Amino acid sequence: MYRYKQIEYRCGAVLEVIRCIPRGSRKGAPCEKGTKSKEDMNRANMVQAARKLERKINANFRPGDLHVILTYRKEARPGKEEAQKLVKKFLADLRSQYKRAGEPLKYILVTEYRRAAIHHHLIINHINDGKRTTMDYIRMAWKGRGSPKFVQLYDDGEYSDLAEYLIKETEKTFREDDSPTKQRYSCSRNLIDPKPRSRIRKTKTGWSLDPKPRKGYYLLPDKLYNGFDRMGYPYQRYLMVRLDVPGSGWRPAAG
């Protein structure tokens, strides 16, 4: 009988599945790992950071919410510390507007200044109070500083590519000694933090290298990984997405 551990994260429209060998069932020598370089370790840390951010975006945001890029006018670009003060005030203004509209403000904020002129990436829940939308509020709060750029989140409700992009954006910036944040991103306190659910499964032959999607879901082929974990034991990870991702009235459920 073959035993393995199955871990699942339910994040909005996405179901993430991880399969690995539990410690009590690890027999024989693992695959040869070799000595990992600093670059290898940094790359592994980036992957884990991107997955954590991916789960947070998938669990808290939906199609129609926004990815906003906040830029500054060339002649009025602030320093790193001043930019943090400006964006903090900007978020406070937005929070007040959302509160008046009877809606919570949910956001993830990323600041980048190493690879390009200083700018901010903001993932934010979109609202429409009947008079103004989130885009109106952002234009008013950012007026005089620069031109916001708006991109609606994808209709499939799966945002792993966006998470990977944001982690790569800040890989060097947040490590600098004079970084004003010392973190890859910040977010509002009201976001769902998806928790894993795990169980031990028993089969005669082990897991299939070609998993099938569950009823009501489709599998993302480019997100399927069959290989080995950091200890050199067999490991599988894949993502499934709901076929019927709800529209603008949908709000993600916890867990």
Counting helices, strands and paired strands, the structural category is: alpha+beta
Order of helices and strands: EEHEHEEHEHEEEEE
Question: Helical residue percent?
Answer: 10-25%
- Any idea what the shape is? globular
The poorly predicted ranges are 248-255
User: What is the beta-strand fraction?
Assistant: 25-35%
Q: State the separation between the terminal residues, measured CA to CA.
A: 31 Å
What's the number of extended β-strand segments?
A: 11
CATH class wording of the largest domain? Alpha Beta
Say what the CATH topology of the largest domain is. Alpha-Beta Plaits
Cα gyration radius (Å): 21 Å
Question: What is the count of distinct domains?
Answer: 2
The total of helices stands at: 4
Describe the largest sheet: 6 strands, antiparallel
CATH architectural arrangement of the largest domain: 2-Layer Sandwich
Notes on the protein architecture:
- The protein is α+β, with helices and mostly antiparallel strands.
- It folds into 2 domains: 1-31 and 196-249; 60-187, Alpha-Beta Plaits (2-Layer Sandwich).
- It has helices spanning 38-60, 80-100, 134-142, 160-169, and strands at residues 2-11, 14-20, 66-71, 107-112, 119-124, 149-152, 186-187, 197-203, 217-219, 225-228, 234-242.
- Strands 1, 2, 8, 9, 10 and 11 form a 6-stranded antiparallel β-sheet that branches. A 5-stranded antiparallel β-sheet has the order 6-3-5-4-7, with no helix packed on it.
- A hairpin with a 2-residue loop joins strand 1 and strand 2 (14-20).
- The radius of gyration is 21 Å and the shape is globular.
